[in-house]
């Protein structure tokens, strides 16, 4: 006869399935957009684009999430993550498949706006899904695995899309991206379930007035933990997207790499990011300095890597490649402990909104930095000012946020509203 404890234990074992599903959907939904950097040479050749125009493609996909992440956060606090995330990944798929008929650059920009609207739900939704299934002792490790989905999808896209573009043209890459996103949507809809024990039912109890709810959310912006979150997030996300978009072009123009070898280095950079997101998040579970200690390490490591790229050593093929892989580990790996820090700093009933708010602030940098960095490169004819700007941003964020000293207060299982095996 099956006991209640056995049933509960079996249910909580399902959290690993949830983790796998959330990770896969993250990788699938971001597959095409994260592969744009690897196709930079092909897009410049086929569409006669400048570096700033390549950067604008990424910005177009990230523009709608400026508002969309906040909307998604509210939806996630009110609705089942299964439908919010599944529908969003479906919109990504529909946009990319429709975009395969785009006649040129302007149409492609419009398509990527729609893709960004769908993707707005996937990032905070998957993060909240994982946070709700895992206790504090494993949450960082689990979140690191889940957040590794983005560089994992980027690595696979960097390996596959340039060859698809070479063989069948750039439109075929949108078809490939659309089919991958559709698979991610179907997997999440089919396999995701909410945890067996939850807090009060959604929508239960008296609701505060709209003004009260808005005031509570705006007050979150002034909390020391959110100041630290936003400073570290905007600087490191700028590094991540700068390295992701410009690695291939830097190696091609500065270190005389061909398009194929440069794309393979980008695959290695993204692969290092996968390892970094898992390893750094797991370390943040057990490290004496907590989540923020991992972020300080990442910012320091980024400054070291950028310093190398700005010297003549950055033109040597082997050193440039190794340095970019180093930046992949730390400049992409920071996201695992960062998003865990966000989820643990938020009030229990506003986790979705806090994730959406923090990620929407990051979106400002994601939208602005690719074209700004591309324009800086086009005007100066050199990558040194680009790496210099990213270094300055990171140094300022490290100095200012280090003066803010909130306690890193991870919520226990009970405070989060769910409880499962540690």
Automatic annotation (TrEMBL):
Key words of the record: Membrane, Transmembrane, Transmembrane helix
Domain of life: Bacteria
Mode of membrane association: Multi-pass membrane protein
TM region positions: 16-42, 54-76, 83-99, 170-192, 229-251, 257-280, 292-312, 318-341, 353-376, 382-402
Cell compartments where the protein resides: Cell membrane
PROSITE patterns associated with the record: MFS
Classification via Pfam families: MFS_1
InterPro entries (UniProt xref): MFS, MFS-Transporter, MFS_dom, MFS_trans_sf
Occurrences of domain Major facilitator superfamily (MFS) profile (ranges): 18-409
Keyword Membrane: yes
UniProt name for this protein: MFS transporter
Organism: Streptomyces durmitorensis
């Amino acid at each position: 006869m099956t006991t209640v404890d056995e049933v509960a234990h079996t249910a909580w074992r399902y959290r690993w399935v949830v983790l796998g599903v959330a990770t896969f959907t993250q990788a699938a939904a971001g597959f095409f957009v994260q592969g744009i950097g690897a196709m930079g040479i092909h897009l410049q050749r086929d569409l006669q684009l400048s570096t700033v125009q390549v950067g604008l493609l990424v910005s177009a996909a990230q523009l709608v999430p400026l508002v969309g992440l906040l909307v998604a956060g509210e939806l996630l606090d009110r609705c089942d993550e299964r439908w919010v995330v599944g529908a969003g990944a479906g919109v990504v798929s529909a946009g990319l498949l429709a975009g395969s008929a785009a006649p040129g650059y302007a149409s492609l920009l419009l398509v990527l706006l729609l893709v960004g609207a769908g993707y707005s739900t996937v990032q905070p939704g998957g993060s909240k899904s994982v946070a709700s299934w895992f206790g504090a002792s494993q949450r960082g490790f689990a979140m690191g695995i889940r957040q590794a989905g983005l560089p994992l999808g980027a690595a696979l896209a960097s390996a596959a899309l340039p060859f698809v573009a070479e063989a069948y043209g750039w439109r075929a890459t949108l078809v490939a991206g659309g089919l991958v996103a559709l698979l991610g949507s179907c997997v999440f809809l089919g396999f995701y379930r909410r945890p067996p024990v939850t807090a009060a039912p959604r929508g239960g109890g008296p609701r505060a007035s709209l003004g009260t709810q808005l005031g509570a959310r705006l007050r979150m912006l002034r909390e020391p933990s959110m100041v630290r979150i936003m400073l570290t997030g905007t600087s490191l996300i700028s590094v991540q997207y700068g390295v992701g978009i410009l690695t291939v072009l830097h190696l091609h123009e500065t270190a005389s790499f061909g398009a194929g070898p440069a794309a393979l280095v980008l695959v290695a950079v993204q692969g290092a990011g996968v390892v970094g997101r898992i390893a750094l998040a797991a370390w943040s579970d057990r490290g004496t300095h907590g989540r923020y200690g991992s972020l300080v390490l990442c910012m320091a490591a980024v400054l070291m890597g950028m310093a190398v790229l700005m010297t003549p050593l950055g033109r040597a093929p082997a050193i440039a490649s190794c340095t970019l892989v180093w930046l992949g580990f730390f400049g992409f790996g920071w996201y695992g402990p960062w998003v865990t820090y966000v989820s643990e700093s938020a009030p229990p009933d506003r986790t979705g909104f806090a994730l959406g708010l923090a990620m929407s602030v990051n979106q400002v940098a994601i939208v602005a930095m690719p074209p700004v960095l591309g324009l800086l490169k086009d005007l100066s004819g050199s990558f040194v000012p680009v790496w210099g700007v990213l270094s300055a941003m990171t140094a300022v964020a490290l100095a200012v946020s280090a003066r803010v000293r909130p306690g890193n207060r991870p919520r226990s299982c009970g405070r989060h509203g769910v409880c499962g095996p540690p």
